[in-house]
Design a protein that fits this description.
Helix content of chain B: 40-55%
Structural class of chain A: alpha/beta
Strand content of chain B: 5-15%
Order of helices and strands of chain A: EHEEHEHEHEEHEEEHEEHEHHH
Largest sheet of chain B: 7 strands, mixed
Number of strands of chain A: 13
Radius of gyration of chain A: 19 Å
Number of helices of chain A: 10
Helix content of chain A: 25-40%
Distance between the termini of chain B: 46 Å
CATH superfamily of chain A: NAD(P)-binding Rossmann-like Domain
Shape of chain B: globular
Structural class of chain B: alpha/beta
CATH topology of chain A: Rossmann fold
Number of strands of chain B: 7
Distance between the termini of chain A: 44 Å
CATH architecture of chain A: 3-Layer(aba) Sandwich
CATH architecture of the largest domain in chain B: 3-Layer(aba) Sandwich
CATH topology of the largest domain in chain B: Glycerol-3-phosphate (1)-acyltransferase
Shape of chain A: globular
Oligomer: heterodimer
Number of domains of chain A: 1
Strand content of chain A: 15-25%
Strand order of the largest sheet of chain B: 1-7-6-2-5-3-4
Chain lengths: ~325, ~325
């Protein structure tokens, strides 16, 4: 029998989501890495050597996984962002779930936790600078209260920089991830006539899903800690993105748009609440130089690739049971 | 009519007061010959206008192209032809005829000392702000593109209220202007760009007619940024724009209602309605002063910074004075 290297065990929460799926597929191909998934949902097309636990991370049973094995890294992707989900459950899932992840990490000496947050935490504002750095205030909930649990999670993770200095905590804040994933921006580009706001054409940054996985893996290297914006190719105007997707637009006057969006949301014609219209109005463009300079991260897919990835026909269908988790955008 | 009886009575009283004072001003203008003078000015300006139309005011196509190419040489545009701030040269090419017509025909702009703007490298252009609508920024930009050789592209700091407007905000961004935030300014200066700042801000542009050419309070932010990034300052005075829209005073309640920094009350609104907010074809003069350099701690006390700001202010003031001395009238 060939000599085997000592196994490195990693845990991925939210593994049944598109991003978790891609990450698991990349990790399990690395020799000597054992991947354990935690998700309430069924894990479709699970690679044979990936261990999957269909449990709620807040339940006691989760602790057994950490008790019985030495985990090296926790990839915490299991955040819920589903505007149709009950708000209380939403909050508890995200905040309590993240709290549990950090508790396990401390209790069982896991050296590293990688949290995938989102550029949503900065929020669209008219006075956003053209390059939001990691130090910018998290104003996302100002006009979009449903996002406040994501901000709590981001802050909670940041608090572990001083609560547990020995733990390597990494918070990633990616821009719009495009791919065969169900998130607001990918869904938007898949609409037959994406609505726009008349007279507004904000700059947008998009990131290919595979580039996001690469960023997660880059940040998982030993010794890396801190908050990083994850930015792919340079920003482009929203109108160019829609043109690349080959869609005709539906321009709405901005004072009327919230009314239209609210009703369309109530009628289940669209899946994004009216507050997300601000994304079509104001730019949220991040400064991605930190992860590039400190970690040498580089994206490999351009804007065109990312848009095409979102338009692929095999859109990832997760299990509907836990509510469709629209991975961090 | 007795005073202070009802609200409506008071308002009526006030309107009557304004009308009476306007009448008095008109009377005085007729007595001093202002009307005749304006009439000769306007006919002369109309003659200039006809001459420009006849002889052609447009820059030759290839010359314009050469200038645009020159500007693009040092811009980092992505594959979609925009820079990270949203500037798109293609967009500028498209709207350019309008800007050129405004600059050459409408305002018949004259430029002095434009060689004071350095050819390359970071610099802060500091100008007075006037005219109710921000056309002064547009003409400064146009002058550096059309009348400077080699041309130079400016990035101006626009009030955030304006960049959040539909159409106008997008227009500003595509033309390379950015929201007026210290962080944006710092990044542009560090990228060796020339940045236009109006330190008077909204208070400057909305001056009533009685306050024309009296500089409002200058903000200190530009000086701190100049010290921090070691950028030279070019003082600029735009003379003539104060008369393009006559403003009797600002309607604070209306401004609050529409969420704008200020709403002017042009007297001609009674006659023309919203068309009174169209700028009159006054003649504009742009004076570029010699670059000033400052040294010191960018985080110094306000009192120390204020001295340096005052120096820039004085430079602009003397350029304005020169402009007012040299001009013959509002329209010529």
């Amino acid at each position: 029998m060939p000599r085997r290297k000592r196994e490195r065990t990693v845990v991925i929460t939210g593994i049944a989501g598109r991003l978790g799926h891609l990450l698991a597929r990349r990790l399990h191909r690395i020799e000597g890495v054992k991947v354990i998934g935690i998700d309430r949902r069924h894990f479709h097309r699970r690679p044979k050597d990936v261990e999957h636990h269909r449990i709620d991370i807040r339940r006691k049973a989760t602790e057994d996984i950490f008790r019985t094995q030495r985990v090296e890294t926790i990839y915490h992707l299991g955040l819920m962002h589903d505007p149709r989900q009950d708000q209380g459950e939403h909050f508890s899932w995200n905040v309590v779930g993240t709290q549990r992840v950090f508790e396990f990490a401390q209790r069982y000496d896991v050296p590293k936790v990688v949290l995938v947050s989102s550029a949503d935490v900065y929020g669209p504002q008219s006075d956003n600078p053209a390059f939001l750095s990691e130090d910018a205030p998290l104003l996302g909930a100002q006009r979009f209260p449903q996002i406040r649990d994501l901000i709590s999670v981001d802050m909670l993770a940041q608090s572990y920089f001083w609560k547990a200095p020995e733990l390597e905590t990494v918070v990633l804040r990616p821009v719009h991830i495009l791919g065969a994933v169900k998130n607001a921006m990918s869904n938007y580009l898949r609409m037959s006539r994406p609505p726009t706001l008349f007279g507004f054409d904000p700059m947008m940054q998009v990131l290919h899903e595979e580039d996001m996985v690469s960023a997660i893996l880059t940040a998982a290297r030993p010794g890396v800690r801190g908050v990083f914006n994850v930015v792919g190719p340079d920003a482009v105007p929203l109108s160019r993105l829609i043109a690349l997707a080959g869609r005709p637009t539906l321009p709405l006057p901005h004072p009327l748009a919230p009314l239209v969006a609210r009703n369309a949301f109530a009628l289940r014609l669209i899946d994004a609440p009216a507050a997300e219209l601000d994304w079509l109005r104001y730019a949220v463009t991040l400064d991605g130089s930190r992860i590039r300079k400190l970690l040498g991260y580089a994206h490999s897919y351009g804007v065109q690739d990312a848009v095409h990835a979102a338009l692929r026909s095999d859109i990832f269908e997760g299990d509907a049971e836990a509510g469709s988790r629209r991975t961090a955008r | 009519m007795s005073k202070g009886r009802s609200g409506a009575g008071k308002t009526f009283e006030r309107i009557a007061d304004v009308a009476r004072s306007q009448l008095a001003v008109a009377q005085q203008a007729r007595d001093t010959g202002l009307v005749e003078q304006l009439w000769t000015e306007i006919s002369e300006a109309a003659g200039d206008f006809r001459g420009l139309l006849r002889d052609g005011y447009r820059m030759p196509e290839e010359e314009l192209e050469r200038r645009v190419e020159h500007l693009l040489g040092n811009k980092n545009l992505n594959e979609f032809g925009v820079d990270p701030f949203g500037f798109s040269p293609d967009y500028v090419r498209k709207i350019f005829p309008v800007v050129e017509a405004m600059y050459r025909l409408w305002y018949r702009t004259e430029v002095f000392g434009i060689e004071n703007v350095p050819e390359t490298g970071r610099c802060l252009l500091i100008s007075n702000h006037s005219g109710q609508l921000p056309f002064d920024g547009a003409v400064i930009g146009a002058s550096l593109l059309l009348d400077r050789d080699p041309p130079r592209m400016i990035r101006s700091m626009v009030e955030k209220f304006a960049t959040a407007l539909p159409f106008f905000g997008t227009f500003c961004v595509r033309c390379g202007q950015v929201t007026g935030l210290p962080d944006n300014c710092r990044r542009l200066l560090e990228a060796e760009e020339s940045v236009l700042v109006f330190p008077e801000g909204a208070n400057g542009i909305s001056k009533p007619f009685s306050q024309r050419y009296k500089l409002a309070r200058f903000g200190h932010g530009f000086m701190r940024l100049a010290l921090e990034t070691n950028s030279p300052i070019v003082p600029i005075a735009v003379v003539g724009a104060e008369e393009q829209i006559i403003n009797l005073g600002n309607a604070a309640w209306l401004a609050k209602l529409v969420g704008a920094p200020s709403v002017p009350i042009p007297p001609l609104a009674l006659l023309l309605g919203p068309a009174a907010m169209l700028p009159m074809p006054v003649k504009l003069r742009i004076y570029y002063g010699e670059p000033l350099s400052f040294e010191g701690d960018p985080n110094d006390d306000d009192a120390v910074i204020a001295l340096k700001v005052a120096e820039v202010r004085r430079a602009i003031d003397s350029l304005i004075e020169r402009g007012l001395r040299e001009r013959r009238g509002y329209f010529i």
